[in-house]
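Lab notebook: predicted structure, single chain.

Context: the supervisor wants predicted structures on file for every construct in the current expression panel, including those that have not yet been purified. This is the next one on the list. No modifications to the sequence; it matches the entry in the shared construct table.
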Amino acid sequence: MAEIKKILILGQSVAGAAFIERLRAVDTESSVTVISSGNSLAAKRELFAAFLAKEIKEDQVLFKAKNFYEQNKVQLVFGKKVIRVDFKRKRVVTEEKEQFDFDILIIADLGIRFPEIKGVNKAGVFSLRNLDAVKDVVDLLPLVESVAIEDDSIWAVQTALAFAKRGKEVIFVVSSNDILASMVEEEASRVLAQQLEKNNVRIIKENKIQEILGEGEVKAVRLKTGKVLACQIAIIGNTKTDLRLFAESVLQIQNGILTNGEFQTNLENVFAADTVCESEASALPLEEQGRMIAQKISDQEISAKPLLRTEVFDLLGCPVAFIGTTRSSADTQKFTVHNEAMGSFAQIFSSQNILVGAVLINTALSQEKIVRLIQEKIDISGSEEQIFNDQNSYEHIVSLSQEKRACAQPEQETFAATQTDQKPESL
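Prediction complete. Output recorded below exactly as produced.
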């Protein structure tokens, strides 16, 4: 019989909910408690922009409905800030002096710390990393004319367009000379910027928000260059997880809580996931993170699924997909087709003749074809142009690769035979 444990999860996160789902498949007896400082259930952050744009309702953003937790005998504790974790006594203490004991602790989500910006604590400044903040913004939007966003991520691009769709003036501030500069090449960045500007998003490059202006609430932002721009909401994306709770603890911490590939910290009974952890495995989807922790705790064989980073989103009718490698490097080659008249852009990347990634913007090129070619490691040398033809299926590209290998093989055999027939000259 499996040992009955007290499992405590700090924070509402998709990783935590996925952990519960996997755990309950093999363990229905251990107690599970989730403590969060907010009042919302775990939500899918990739859907926040759609919720802001009023394309979906709140219940569609949730990873699991409330009855999931009831059916799985999970105690939900909302609105409680944890002020101390005693790892030796295996106990968590809240602001109200409530105590929760644990055998296993999973740190899934904590509060945030804004960067050092003057006035950042004013009403109207948000990070939008949790559903509570997103709901506050939704309530505030009818009173808002202009929104300033400082960030350079896919999330920020989607958020900017969501505000634009709600008829708001959007000021999008990025520190580099291109948007998404860390993710895509310059040409792809320009195409994305054109799509944003076409939808009334004003992009300000090579700048930063230096100060939030207003008496108690946001009225404007002052940029690094000194320019002042009126707005009623400021979205700051460059936030960090607030780890001060563990500053004097035995947990190993750098930018996040250090974990191994199984999300286990330096303490055997403590795990960390989501934005809290720092690990090579932290790029895994949150559902996968939770599943792996459940497997570890319940002594199941851990099997991580191969990771192929894929970001798919819509820029108000313009489909965008980032698959695998999206920037060139010393060991990759890139191939690009850009039809400015049609507003379409496709770029693929290969390494040693194997497709490793793609950037697709407003193109009919099949994402499924690209993903399969990457996952199956098909030799695409000489077939790069054929990949860009959306009429050519995955099977067609594979057959071209097979034909090429078949043609190359006799040449190699002839060369080998010639080498064998040669006799060394007499000395």
